[in-house]
Specification:
- The chain has helices at residues 4-16, 33-42, 66-73, 90-94, 166-183, 188-213, 229-235, 253-266, 280-286, 309-325, and strands spanning 28-30, 50-51, 77-80, 101-104, 220-223, 238-242, 270-273, 292-295.
- The chain is an alpha/beta fold.
- β7 (270-273), α9 and β8 (292-295) form a beta-alpha-beta unit.
- Bound molecules: zinc ion (ZN).
- Zinc ion is lined by residues 60, 161, 225, 227, 247.
């Protein structure tokens, strides 16, 4: 049965006169909103990818609805980050049709990759993995968009929030264009041209972010969950810890107390919550302090899905940091 939005899309396309190549375009499903956005940029003028996950939901603990599982089933191309982020995808991916193209973005060559950090005091050095692998117990080997002989590294400790470094966003745009060109050779040139446009646009955004955060780069802050290392390292901002120990993991009273002390010692200016997390702990941490509370939105939960979401998400992170840290 067709969903209402799919039906609306078909009627809309019929009324507006769909481009001739839309009929031949592959059915593309992307998991999270930032990945869907990059895919949308690459597919501009050809077709619209489907966003799999409900907006605002955390990929770290997600249950597929039957209609969402069906969308994966029927896809010609599936774009996801990898088992470290979307553990819920292990089973549907194992069941994918042999002819479907799977783009595992965490395995694309040329990425800037960071390990998951220790749960507190990030200045103390490289940490251990503390949670991203809890959904990744499957022995499923994912298939990258590129053949990578000899590459059997599971990268168990990789921090999967890779899109928060725009340099990785650019690498992904190219990888998605390559995969789409394979699945849909008739539109190969258009995908590659769109990826080239994405590179230039992302470079402009990087420059803008540098300007936005320049006055507040040294100011110490705390984030809700350890999602922002890619952004911090690219732009040199000064996060000192996270409230939540691992994704989808409740911090204990001892951690909260240590973090409170550390926030005082380090002169933390701001603490950032997220749209999809309950902010009760933040009020415990800021009680009787002058620490400001801001919001960071790593998944673009508050943005409309589509081509503009990814650039807006990056710029919004920079602006949210500046607005809170400058106060
Ligand atoms: Zn996360």
């Amino acid at each position: 049965m067709l969903s209402k939005s799919l039906l609306a899309g078909i009627i809309g396309a019929a009324l507006l006169g769909a481009p001739a190549n839309a009929l031949a375009a592959p059915r593309v499903v992307a998991t999270i909103a930032p990945v869907h956005s990059i895919t949308s940029i690459v597919m501009q003028g050809i077709a619209e990818p489907t966003l799999l996950m409900r907006p605002g939901a955390s990929p770290h603990e997600y249950a597929l609805r039957p209609s969402e599982a069906e969308a994966i089933d029927q896809a010609d191309v599936v774009v996801w980050v990898g088992e470290q982020l979307e553990g819920f995808m292990a089973r549907p991916i194992a069941a994918l049709a042999a002819e479907a193209v799977l783009v595992t973005l965490a395995e694309v060559p040329g990425l800037q990759v960071h390990e998951v950090r220790a749960d507190e005091n990030w200045s103390a050095g490289p940490g251990h993995d503390h949670g991203h692998d809890r959904h990744g117990a499957s022995s499923q080997h994912s298939i990258g968009s590129h053949d990578s002989p000899g590459h059997h590294d599971h990268r168990a400790g990789i921090d999967p929030h890779l899109w928060l470094d725009p340099v990785n966003g650019k690498v992904w745009a190219n990888a998605i264009a390559d995969a789409l060109a394979t699945a849909d050779p008739a539109n190969a040139a258009a995908y590659r041209e769109n990826a080239a446009i994405a590179q230039r646009r992302t470079e402009a955004i990087e420059a803008e972010i540098r300007k936005i955060v320049a006055p507040v780069r040294e100011r110490p802050y705390v984030v809700f969950h350890d999602a922002y290392r890619y952004f911090e390292e690219r732009f040199g901002t000064n996060a000192i810890g996270s409230v939540s120990l691992g994704d989808a993991q409740k911090p204990g009273a001892a951690h909260v107390q240590r973090l409170r002390d550390e926030m005082r010692n380090e002169g933390v200016v701001c603490i950032f919550t997220e749209p999809q997390f309950e902010p009760r702990l933040v009020s415990i941490l800021t009680e009787d302090t002058a620490i400001e509370v801001g919001v960071l939105d790593p998944l673009g939960a508050s943005l409309a899905p589509g081509a503009d979401l990814y650039p807006s998400l990056l710029l919004d992170l920079a602006r949210s940091l500046r607005d809170c840290l400058a106060s």
